[in-house]
Write a structure and sequence with these properties.
Number of strands: 7
CATH superfamily of the largest domain: Nucleic acid-binding proteins
CATH class of the largest domain: Mainly Beta
Structural class: alpha+beta
Number of domains: 2
CATH architecture of the largest domain: Beta Barrel
Radius of gyration: 24 Å
Largest sheet: 5 strands, mixed, barrel
Shape: elongated
Strand order of the largest sheet: 2-4-5-7-6
Distance between the termini: 73 Å
Low-confidence stretches: none
Helix content: 25-40%
């Protein structure tokens, strides 16, 4: 009924659609396994069961909660409803201060205690690197 060219085009288009569908599926599966969402202290308190997977906890660093020892930093992350104690070994980012936003990546010991492996300090949308600020000011 259909000519040879029409059949070949149909097969070619079907193979392209199948390839694109497979590629999108593989990318989405890879992202699902590697994406780490951050949770607030309130979300952690409401967890029914603790898992041993790496998570991120986000919130504000509570005022007067940062204590720096020789090799570790301990502080409290709050979302102004609940709090979680965080311990981190290593150097913290320059933007890490009390009253500012922070995301800590690591593992939960229990619903009140978090061991961080990485600290990500957040800044507001008005942040401008000093070099850029100086360059703009010179003009």
């Amino acid at each position: 009924m259909y000519g040879k060219k029409v059949k070949l085009r149909f097969i070619f288009i079907a193979l392209i659609l199948a390839s694109v569908t497979l590629a999108v599926f593989l990318v989405l599966q890879s992202l699902k396994e590697n994406v780490i969402y951050f949770q607030s202290p309130s979300e952690i308190k409401s967890l029914i069961e603790l898992n041993k997977k790496k998570i991120r906890v986000g919130g504000m660093v509570k005022e007067q909660s940062v204590f720096i020892n020789s090799d570790e930093v301990s502080f409290i992350i709050t979302d102004f409803k609940n709090e979680i104690n965080v311990v981190y070994s290593g150097a913290v980012p320059n933007l890490f201060t009390e009253g500012k936003g922070v995301v800590a990546e690591g593992f939960l010991k229990d619903k009140n205690y978090f061991t961080a492996t990485k600290i990500l300090a957040k800044h507001d949308e008005n942040y401008m690197p000093p070099e850029v600020k100086e360059a703009i000011g010179d003009k």
